[in-house]
From TrEMBL:
Taxon lineage: Bacteria, Pseudomonadati, Pseudomonadota, Alphaproteobacteria, Geminicoccales
Residue spans crossing the bilayer: 60-79, 85-106
Keyword Ribosomal protein (UniProt): no
Domain of life (superkingdom): Bacteria
Organism in which the protein naturally occurs: Tistrella arctica
InterPro entries (UniProt xref): ATPase_gene1 (IPR011744), ATPase_put (IPR032820)
Pfam families cross-referenced by the UniProt entry: ATPase_gene1
Listed Low complexity bias regions: 15-35
Keyword Transport: no
UniProt protein name: AtpZ/AtpI family protein
Comp. bias intervals (Basic and acidic residues): 1-10, 36-47
Amino acid sequence: MTVPADRDPPDAGDDAPGSPRARAQDARMAAAADRQAARERAAKADHEAGIGTRLGQIGVLGWMIVTPMLLGLLLGRWLDRLASSGITFAAALLLLGAALGLWSAWKWMQRP
């Protein structure tokens, strides 16, 4: 067998497991796998929520604010009818419901 002059003949154990060349290839492969795993972790950490998720969050926030307001208004109207007091209880409990709803929405938005 003739070997072209521009190439060195391969050593018999050059690609054998444990050879310096095989260890270098293994190290490069491990480094490439580590880089790929780091890219995947970064992609998961930087994931931007989709439009559907954002719209769902807006809907939840809306109901978190509106529900206590409506319950306060309902209770206030009932108390106003019992006490014949105009809209005193309705207005007060509507504002209390708004404060409670806004506070709960704020707490929900600030959760980790």
